[in-house]
Specification:
Length: 286
Amino acid sequence: MQHGPAVRRRKLGAELRTLRGRAGLTSGEAARLVGWHQSKVSRIETGASGVKPADVRSLLDAYGVDDAQLRDLLLALAGSCGGHGRDHWWHAYKGVLPPTYRDFISLESQAGAMRTLETSVVPGLLQTPEYARAVTRAAVEGLTEDRLDALVEVRLARQVVLRSHPPLVLSAVLDEAVLRREVGGPEVMARQLERLMEAARLPQVRLQVLPFAAGAHIGVTGPFVIFSFSRTSDLDVVVLDHLTSSLYLERKEDVEAYTEAFNALQFHALSPEDSLDYIAAIGDGA
């Protein structure tokens, strides 16, 4: 269980080590090709030290990696812009966002797919501006209006991943409590339910409701997110949110456990079609 930047370093290093092996090179041979000491290659591969995008580019060139999407992904993990055509716009908010949130947005911007269980609030990618403002105000005490405005801007800017090319594929399971909790008042909640129904009709969004009638379920311990990357499952990561930080689970067995849990939640949840009807009924006061 690691914080985001450490996870990214380790994952980047592991992938570079794999690519070196495929190229038939020892760490010493790779170092000589790029003009480094062997110890630098070793530190990068173990995640012991950070690595600049330019260094990653040099290694990828040395290893003969010409897969553009894989290069973009690995360069993004090293802090470069690009990959899926999604720029690192959040750098403009560096003074507003805590490092764990910036790292979450970075992963979200580069992932090919995102699976999320939400038990309390609507996923950020599907929130209306009014709902986002009400949630942010409640979650973070003592916000000035300027800082609140900035955080809401960030929440809404994140949603561009659903409209990018290719878009992020979002699969969300929402506990019924998410739909029943009146965030921001009746009018705000009514518009939010409409927004959920609009989003559920998008081809890149799969939305399912887990009704109260389903009883206790594997997700009662709390929400989670699974990020998946199109070129390699070795980079997949689970994110758990806590009050003051986010934790990242990168071990293959952890990712597999949460993937199985999410599959079980989808099985017990209403179908996407029935979920739409369920949300509409709640919006009508049922």
